[in-house]
Records
---
Amino acid sequence: MISPATINGTRRRTVDRVYDYLATGLDKVQVAGLCVFAAGTAFSISFTNWSVFPFVLLPLVLWADLTRRNPAYRTALDIPLLAVYASAVASSFASYYAGGAEFMSRSFSWVYRYTAPLAFYAVAFSLYRRDKRVVAAMFIMLVAAATANSGYAIYQFCDRVLHGVHVLTNRPGGRMFYMTYGGVMAAVCSLTLVALVKAKIRLWARIASASAFAIMLGGLAVSLVRSAWLGFGVAFVVIAVIAERRLLWAIPAVIVVALLIAPREITDRAASLVRVGAAFEHAEPTDPDGESRLGIWKTYVRIAGDYPVFGIGLHNARYTYDRYKDPGSIESEIPHAHNNYLQAVVERGIVGLAAFLALVGALFVIFVRAYRRGPPGSKTYVIGLAGVGIMSGFLVEGLFEYTFGDFEIMILIYGLAAIAVALTRREADETADRADTRVTQP
């Protein structure tokens, strides 16, 4: 006769086996979700949202419940992100004094929608316990999607030029809005550049990376987004100065080649960067009466002057603009300042600007730490170096565009920061384990 203890033991083993199968299945779902998330950041925000939340974050929560393990840990972004959210909540309450209940309701609705930081935690907590080959798979998916999207943007550009369409009025952006596309491509090009020149990869992978980089660089060029060009240029110089100064010699060569083979639409757009007045122009040549960057900035400075501490709330600037614009201005309801720092002051006040700068500083800390702690050529080193370049470009690009309000750009930066955090933590734990092993050995 089988004893009750034996029966109970068999049941426990069966339940444990089922839980193990479920945990393994959830692990595989997360890996697939992470790869789709990486691809989506360079192709479609819908792919990003529909992968990171149901296929990364939810399986992570279920896995933690099944295994009774806590995957969370503290990161350098915890306090800055809390400060960003707190400043948004404070500005939402304060917006009542700028526009009543309508302003307050609109601002709070955007506080609820700002879910990009959740992607940071989902990716960081999921990656920490995984094989580093998952990071390589995410990189491949990201670059493949960015290359495909760039190829499509180049096709759009060529098709419009051949059909006589003015490309500045109908700019190519692949599957994205052209400004968003330009910012995303600047970041992915920076990451691919570092992988190409510093990563320890095989020859075929280096050739593939070089081919992808060339296509993405072409895609960035046809976007005609000058702020993204400047952002990538700054990232390129920072990466070269830090890790590979021979790259600086490529700058004059690239300029010469571009002048020789680039279409007139691209060279004319690049020439406008030299003309300081045109560099601040918001409207295109087909709309010469449009508002200038300087005109927009002056209006936003007036708004900020009346609400300096907490601002007027999120996404309320559009509905305040007309009360502060110049009498001769024909523009109406300009939604943002084309400047990260001025937009932060207008929407969240000086408190919000301080929180934003703290967030940017924390991101720099994360990437610098990864660059310094990762062995040269490792994934940690590559992500860290690329992140430093990307954030440097982000600071400059943010002088002329509101990139902090661009969900696609920010979720890509958060994703890279999450990878850097997870890899850095793994490197630190492995170093500590090796030290413990040496101490315990006779």
---
Amino acid sequence: MKSIVRRTAFALCSAAIAASASQLHAQASSSFDKSSGGPGQAYPTKPIRIIVPYAPGGSTDVVFRILAPRLTEILGQQIIIDNRPGAASTIGLDIVAKSAPDGYTVGVNNIAYGANPTIYKKMPFDSEKDLLPVTLVSIVTLVMTVHPSVPARSIREFIALAKAKPATLTYGSAGSGSANHLATERFAHMAGIKLLHVPYKGGGPAVVSVVQGETSTLLATIPSSIQHFKTRRLIPLAVSSAKRNSALPDLPTISEAGVPGYEAIEWQGLVVPAGTSQNVIRTLYQATTKASQGADVREKVSALGADFVNTTPEEFDQFVKRELSVWSKVVKEVGIKID
């Protein structure tokens, strides 16, 4: 099982990012031309709604709220962030899948997209047929945090505490199948401990729960938790990436801190309803890439521990297919289930 845990979606994510990075600037030029949304139609001609399938305050929400003003400038139409949390992104993405394929309803997908078809017995939409990829926008490192009342200040101390008090420590998540849920279950499996899962409707509420002491720990995204480290309302133990993160350079990785080989990375992409024209998809991809190249935008996102990727639609399509295949195996092996 450890071989599967150590060589799955997160390794593939790194490989996909490395393979595409050298092509990005050539494929998305600094110039930007609005496309045709269809025969005789310019695009866009009205506001565009981006459905974030999680509550406000989580990393997925934060990253796209940073991007939204710049996208509005580039596209010449207002970008509206519409939070539709629930069922680990399934509720929000179902709305997208059932929307008109005209480019005016765009969805955000993430790591849960690859796991949900295996976790949920019945999905309201087909992940492989009902939504089309636009671009893999960003990756976000997770950080293991604890409430100050938890008597652990390192990964080894946390594991020892969990083994001394099995099935008593609780962890929050943005919902069953979310990045926090998947990553924490893999951590617990590799560490040989048992933690109790408390799902919320988004990363924001999950962060609030651990800040208030309702849950013991949270593998939080850096963007949603970093402000609480300065006030000591949360204690960071280690980051989930293979290498230390520039936003928290003094914090060790979980792998070096006590769970060798562990790695977990959250990602966010854009999708549109099946049937959307390739011209519209290309316009959204080019606009998103240009928006992420702004120095102010990159600085804000980097400071939060996130990094822009901006793969092409074709590259993102291949990435999503790998995620669906890999997470099907991991969910079954680890035994992740809906609570």
---
Amino acid sequence: MAYNQVIDLSNVQQPESIPEPTMRYAVKGVLPVTHGGTGNTTGATETALKLATARKLKTNLAATDDATFDGSADQEVIPVAGVLPVEHGGTGSSTKNFVELDGHTRIYVDAVNGDDGNDGFTEATAVKTIKRGVGIINNHAIAVNPTTETPAHILYVMPGTYSGDDNTLTFYGDKLSSAMPLCIYIKGDVIFSGLALTVNVGGSVIFIPNGDGAKVTFTAPSNASFLIRVINSSLLAFNANLDVVVDCQNIASNGSVFYCSHNAYLSLSSNITVKNATMGSGQLFYSTLQGLITNNASFTLQNNTFNHIFNVGYGCTVNNSTTNVSATNSTVTRFASVNALSLVATSSRATWASSTIETADVTSNGGVVVG
């Protein structure tokens, strides 16, 4: 077909007159945006308000490579750059994966109002179980003990009853040490029901009162051989001004309330009530293989039967400076049996003896009772 005239769209001007309708025109060039065109030869406009077909966009926190998007398909691997600041819920750092609040990390556990789907970083977002709280600490938290300003893991336990497998009280030293202890702050009335407490393999756990009226109660699981145990170079401490109740009714007759062995250290400085023990061949304290017990606690005995207050094996030291002991319906056969280069040093024998039935101590192989 022959054309009478060629129109250059890239240089189109307002016509002075309407072309003759009988003339044929050829078109070349690109119609610019300013005259209603796209400004290109692909037909893609630069001023479109939306895509003809809706697409999905998804960020991926694990992605590291740059992503492109031309609108022809969904893009679900968009990487994220930078760090999320603390004020927007992040850590403010690319090298740490915990949230610092007031210089230390608080992990809150609340048996009544908590939810294990929460992050545990505030009382309002507390988790529900000890297992979940300790799991967050083991995986994330490096903190500062607000009492001593030393590095620590912090677990705030709110009032309530904690029981079952998800509230296990077994702590290991792979995450805890004397340099990085687990500080368990007890608020109000906390009950660990049917749970024996163990600190093992170099772990370090400190129970601390969180405000006035802090009280923690331990009840043993059925036929337990112990209620509170610290072993294998570990540390367990109960700080002053914390009321501790140990209900021994489920402990086996030859068991122990407090058990310490293998270079472990048990420190008691609390107000401790021991009740309902029927342990005619068992003991209040058992220590062996270079265990160390420091006992500065105030004791109340209620409805107990023990064979020994202290049953001490090889290479152990017990520093018993308790000066306040009261007893109701409690019988102790013997104050101490001390064996094999061990020492029980006490300044409170008379106080214990005045509230129990006591026969002679037993010492052998270099065991010594002083005081």
---
Amino acid sequence: MPDYNNDNDIQNTAELEIKRRVEDLPVEKVEEDTEDFDEFDYFDEFAAKSPEPHTWPVSTKKFYLSHKDKLYITVLLALIALFAVIAVTVSLVWHFHAPQGGVNNGTTAGDTTSAQTEDSAKGETLFPTIEFIPAGISDSADDIAVDSIKSTNAVFLDVTNMTVTASRLADERTYPASLTKVMTLIVAVENLRGSSALTDTITVSEEVFERMRKEGASGAGLEPGEQLSVESMLYALMLKSDGIAACELAKYVAGSEEAFVALMNGTAERLGLEDTHFVNPTGLHDNDHYSTCRDLANIMAYAMQNEFCKKIMTEDLYVASCTQANGNKFEYQFYHSLLVTQFDKLNKTLPNSAVVTAGKTGYTEESGYCLVTYAQADNGNGYVVVTTGASSYSDCISDYITVYEAYIP
């Protein structure tokens, strides 16, 4: 056996041995066996005879794999491809069918809104739905005299007994205008998921801002690029009747306004509202966007059973932190002007020491001036008054004072 003194000797000897063996084969045999030929078998053979381990230089000769090795590699590559296809398919399915929201981990609504954080999407709803039986009209219900109020439609609902005890055209279709936002609040709150939902950030988009500006929607003065928490947007929705907040909350919760409106109509059906249909979350006019005074009273009664909706609707001031597009921070102060300016006067005149604690105004040219309010008497009984179709805000205020005074026991 030769004595291998260095790596070069071993390498040279291995190459000579390979060459000798290949040259001794017939030409046909070489072509037939090359696929089963592995140079590294020879290096391994000589390495085993070497007294010390060696690092082999990279061979410049052609490297051949056996049929079995090729089969193993082919199967391995096929499995890798299969797993890649499965991963892509799962990702696409999750993207299009994952629970929403109350689309969207620090993501925002507005520009490329997602609907709730990943954590939120997996969490339980913060404020679950409530069992509800809509109020019917009592057989002994009073008709509100035409000459007693100036609103075209009105309802007085005794919430404690869930009965309409006085009405005027209670089931006639009417345009709800911004009274719609009470349902928007309900649907948004009931679809919040995960512990971080209220603190998630929503960014005002340029598209929503321009659309609301062109349509003359009411609001708190939010600007494109401003970032507010979900909770702040909910207060802007109710205290300032903010159309931008309504649209951005819809996208946050459901991924799109259209999907959110579907949730609104689904909730109306669940609550047994037989003559209500929504087209948008703001209440801006559409001939196919309608309700009745009785349905609107039921919506208000239901909202006041939800503790978080009630908390928002009975607040007279909320301070909202905001980050502008340029990074500057400031605070919005959302006043509930109806509570602050009008209810204080009204509360001195109601029977049974009843106090109006919540309300929502509405107006479009087609709907006239609308109002829904909630009052609670000192005995704990609750009452809702809805009036629509008034020709002025002062008439609207005067009418619901008249109805409360006439029908609170």
